[in-house]
TrEMBL record:
Keywords (A to Z) from UniProt: Cell projection, Cilium biogenesis/degradation, Cytoplasm, Cytoskeleton
Residues covered by region (Disordered): 526-546, 587-606
Organism: Cyclopterus lumpus
Key word RNA-binding present: no
LisH domain ranges (all copies): 407-526
Presence of the UniProt keyword Repressor in the record: no
Residues in coiled coil: none
Domain ARMC9 CTLH-like: start-end pairs: 44-174
Gene Ontology annotations for the cellular component aspect, listed alphabetically: centriole; ciliary basal body; ciliary tip
Any Gene Ontology biological process: cilium assembly
Subcellular location: Cytoplasm, Cytoskeleton, Cilium basal body; Cytoplasm, Cytoskeleton, Microtubule organizing center, Centrosome, Centriole
Top-level taxon of origin: Eukaryota
Protein name in the entry: LisH domain-containing protein ARMC9
Length: 654
């Protein structure tokens, strides 16, 4: 304590403290901290050098781990290089000690440790030319005679390595003059600050990833639209039919966003699924979380195409989620785990399955699934990642008619309307998927009738949320309004609430697409049509086979592995390796559903990601085919050389 007081220059306090200690015959503290630390540091240094000379790798690396600061070991290139050569020194020590009679058993043990190092901490140096040859060391039967390793057995090699080790230890283990009390205080504050920064960084990263994905989709859409318009201009110049040409500038534009031909990729190793499922049900909460994370990563980090299809088919054919199980507790019951990380990572895995067309088919065949998801939706905390993933998974599953029917029966429409009523408290992501899910359910006759049971409340919420600052939700809100207004009782309620006047307030905005959609809604509101016949035929599924894997499925990972704790693919392939089987399956080709024009509200089930990607189709569909240099386009207004394109007008030469 006196060292700390002196360090912060409280000299009078130190003097008073010493004076009072003497008056009460208490032991007066002496500033011996540095001397003791110096002595301890010299002892550690001596033990490290001694174990280096004796070839005692266990003692050496235990001291190395405990006393060399992590920030130096993990970031300093000199420290990483020295550690690499130290591992080589201890690995070949038995071969140097007895050149004539090698202690093979001890050497094999050390080789095993060296291989483990190369796969973990040493992996970072595998791209460095200097160290690359030594990655072959574990596979060479007799390194003493191999030309690549002759320098390691020269008499000068160990002294040279020791000459590097000594100054490194002297500098690194040099004691600080800062009192330990101060170090503890500073470290504690620093950890808290770093934790807060990490949480904030994760939030920003998630937001940026979503914005980037949207910008990337918009960029691809704009290129497609531009290419279409270039075709039209070229056709106009040559006097040919608009859609006859597909060359020149437009071909170059399309080529710039065309997917690259995929190279041959390896299939991931097969797994022991019975052992996996057993540990997922009976293992510790941490093991369950790590396994759920690793399985999700297998889906999200595999390459789109054959590799990902093979992974998914392996999951399905081995019934990973135990669709056919008769057990009382299955893997899906982890959604009811008392551990919130287990629940979150189970929800993330289900969301990953729901992101793939074949995965949605598999999920829709599990009777208990919807009950567990809707239960989690109502019980999880409002801003939790588990709840968000459950909501997004349900929205993707709502592309399938059978799941729509079950969701409507579970009164999910009422829950969604109440959720949207408090829209200002929702994240943009939750708001968008909630609105899109509600619209998909409102497209069904049963869904419309469910809304009609409380029409005033539903109409109030939808017209309010239409004015939300997040304009991404407007297509889904408009689609829901348009759908439910085909019910006469809902139309009557809307007229009593002056919904037309409310909608016309929104149509005053300078947003032509929104204005046209509102006109369609008002036309529906004022129609005299009776409710159409029941249209809930379950034979035809609406799912359009589209994969919807977002890049932000793996963001905000709260589970981080401990040092030397296997995770991800490493965990799966070291503990759960199975017999290699060929699980590849030809993927069904996607059959896009017909969509309404940009003028009309959405009238088919969509997800936010698939809706954004459909803009190219809409753009291309709005360019009509005419002759003699006249092209109608209902999208943009811009000038190209001596041609002028204006909304709903023709291209003419000035």
């Amino acid at each position: 304590s006196t060292l700390y007081l002196k360090f912060v220059e409280f000299e009078e306090t130190v003097n008073s403290f010493d004076k009072e200690c003497k008056s009460k015959d208490k032991l007066v503290s002496k500033p011996q901290g540095n001397t003791l630390r110096d002595s301890k540091t010299r002892g550690i240094q001596k033990d490290l050098l001694s174990s280096f000379d004796d070839g005692d790798h266990k003692v050496f690396f235990e001291l190395w781990t405990e006393n060399i600061p992590s920030e130096i070991k993990d970031t300093d290139t000199e420290a990483q290089s020295l550690e690499f050569y130290l591992h080589i020194h201890f690995t070949i020590y038995p071969l140097r000690r007895h050149p004539g009679r090698h202690d093979r058993a001890e050497f094999e043990e050390r080789i095993s440790h060296f291989k483990q190092y190369l796969e973990t901490r040493g992996a970072a140096l595998s791209q460095t030319t200097e160290f690359l040859p030594y990655y072959a060391l574990p596979f060479v039967p007799n390194p003493t005679v191999h030309p690549s390793f002759k320098d390691l057995f020269q008499d000068s090699w160990i002294p040279q390595l020791k000459d590097k080790l000594k100054p490194f230890l002297s500098v690194t283990l040099k004691p600080s003059n800062t009192p330990r009390l101060m170090n503890l205080y500073v470290s504690s504050n620093a950890v808290q600050q770093l934790h807060l920064q990490l949480v904030e960084s994760d939030r920003r990263i998630t937001s940026y990833v979503r914005k980037f994905n949207k910008m990337q989709a918009d960029y691809h859409n704009l290129i497609g639209i531009t290419a279409e318009l270039v075709d039209s201009l070229e056709a106009t110049v040559s006097g040919k039919m608009v859609r006859q040409l597909d060359c020149g500038a437009s071909s170059m534009l399309r080529a710039s966003i065309a997917p690259q031909k995929s190279k041959e990729v390896p299939m991931l190793p097969s797994l022991d699924y019975e052992k996996l499922k057993k540990d997922l049900v009976e293992g510790s909460d941490r093991l369950k979380s790590l396994l759920l994370q690793a399985l999700r990563w297998r889906l999200t980090r595999s390459l789109p195409g054959e590799q990902r299809d093979t992974v998914l088919q392996a999951f399905i054919s081995n019934d990973l989620l135990e669709r056919y199980s008769t057990k009382q507790k299955t893997l899906l019951h982890l959604m009811r785990s008392k551990n919130k990380i287990v629940r979150q990572y189970m929800a993330r895995l289900i969301n990953a399955f729901a992101s793939l067309a074949e995965g949605r088919i598999y999920l829709s065949q599990i009777p208990i699934l919807l009950k567990l998801l809707t239960e989690a939706l109502r019980t999880e905390e409002k801003d939790s990642l588990a709840r968000e993933n459950v909501l997004v998974a349900l929205q993707k599953l709502s592309l399938r008619r059978s799941q729509q029917t079950a969701m409507i029966a579970a009164n999910l429409i009422g829950w969604l309307v109440d959720e949207l009523q408090d829209s200002d408290c929702l994240s943009d992501y939750t708001l968008e998927y909630s609105a899109a899910l509600l619209m998909n359910l409102c497209l069904r006759t049963k869904g419309k009738r469910k809304c009609a049971e409380n029409a005033r409340h539903v109409l109030k919420v939808l017209t309010d949320v239409l004015g939300h600052e997040n304009h991404e939700i407007r297509p889904y809100v408009n689609g829901a309004l348009y759908s439910i207004l085909c019910i006469p009782s809902v139309r009557q309620e809307a007229k009593e609430m002056s919904v037309e006047e409310i909608l016309r307030c929104y149509s005053k905005e300078e947003n032509p697409d929104l204005n046209r959609q509102i006109e369609f809604i008002i036309k529906q509101l004022n129609s005299a049509d009776e409710e159409g016949p029941e249209s809930d035929d379950e034979e035809d599924e609406d799912d359009n086979d589209e994969d919807l894997m977002e890049t932000d499925l793996d963001t905000e990972e709260v589970l981080q592995p401990q040092p030397r704790e296997p995770s991800g693919e490493s965990l799966l392939t070291t503990e759960y390796l199975g017999i290699m089987t060929n699980m590849s399956k030809v993927k069904r080709k996607s059959t896009p559903l017909s969509q309404p024009s940009v003028d009309e509200p959405l009238q088919r089930p969509v997800t936010p990601s698939s809706h954004r990607n459909f803009n190219v189709f809409l753009a291309q569909g709005y360019c009509s085919t005419l002759y003699s240099g006249h092209v109608t386009c209902g999208l943009f207004s811009f000038k190209v050389d001596h041609f002028y394109i204006t909304r709903s007008q023709t291209i003419r030469s000035f």
